[in-house]
Design goal:
- By secondary structure, the protein is α/β, with parallel strands linked by helices.
- Helices cover about 40% and strands about 15% of the residues.
Length: about 250
């Protein structure tokens, strides 16, 4: 039987039960997936995804003073009273090492929580793309690439990343492309192939979509470039349903 591989271009385009028994890869390139990966690569103990601001505040109150950083954004900006926004550069080793992060964003954390019924929930982005594909290539369970989007809209950058992961997974597993017939997968794969012909077309695609334009409006051009850099880290953050936190298995 052919392996099931699907792309969901928005969280609203799948029902939570659909991912049960499979592996969900949460993709929020601009910027939650990229930021979470930076935080854990730089020594954060764990990232606790929270759907709402009050939930993140409750996590901080329930831990010893100073042990939890509040991170995230609303409308792309630092939340009043929080320590960090959703900028991957802000999660440096000197800031996050050894600390927990209660993290809430407008799109990425909510996408993760919607996919939490999957057997495994991984965090994927360009900065750890090959590491994610390596994990998926060793698995036989269905794969669901979940694009977070922005404000309920499909975004180019998340679709690009999903398409890139599909392309790399095809190569890694020597799967027959015509066996993967999901329409949203085809759209993501075709977008990636069209927009990644050159470095220039890829960078332009990252900026021209809804998410990219939103970041440019906020002055985050450098963060777009960082989020579009491939394979900075050889690690795969994974959500643990028992602890309700994201960490690095085996570390």
């Amino acid at each position: 039987m052919n392996r099931v591989v699907k792309v969901h271009l928005l969280p609203a385009l799948f029902e939570p039960d659909e991912v049960a028994g499979g592996i969900a890869v949460i993709i929020d390139v601009l910027r939650a997936s990229t930021t979470i990966t930076h935080a854990l690569a730089n020594g954060a103990r764990e990232v606790i995804p929270c759907g709402e601001i009050d939930e993140a505040l409750s996590v901080a109150r329930g831990n010893p003073p100073g042990s939890v950083l509040l991170g995230g954004e609303r409308d792309g900006l630092l939340i009043d009273g929080f320590d960090l926004d959703n900028n991957p550069f802000a999660y440096s080793a000197d800031v996050v090492r050894g600390r927990k992060i209660a993290f809430t964003t407008s799109n990425g954390t909510r996408a993760l929580l919607r996919a939490a019924r999957a057997d495994r929930v991984l965090i994927g982005s360009f900065v750890n793309l090959q590491a994610v594909v390596n994990v998926l290539a060793e698995e036989s369970r269905p794969v669901h690439f979940v694009c977070a989007g922005t404000k309920g809209k499909i975004t180019v950058e998340d679709s690009l990343c999903a398409g890139a992961m599909v392309e790399q997974l095809l190569a890694a597993t020597m799967a027959v492309e015509s066996d993967w017939t999901d329409d949203q997968l085809r759209l993501a794969l075709d977008l990636y192939r069209r927009e990644s012909v050159t470095e220039a077309t890829f960078r332009q695609a990252m900026r021209s979509g809804f998410g990219g334009r939103n970041c440019l409006r906020l002055g985050f051009a450098e963060q777009i470039d960082r989020a579009g850099t491939w394979d900075l880290f050889d690690l795969v953050p994974e959500y643990n349903a028992a602890t309700k936190s994201i960490g690095l298995p085996g570390y």
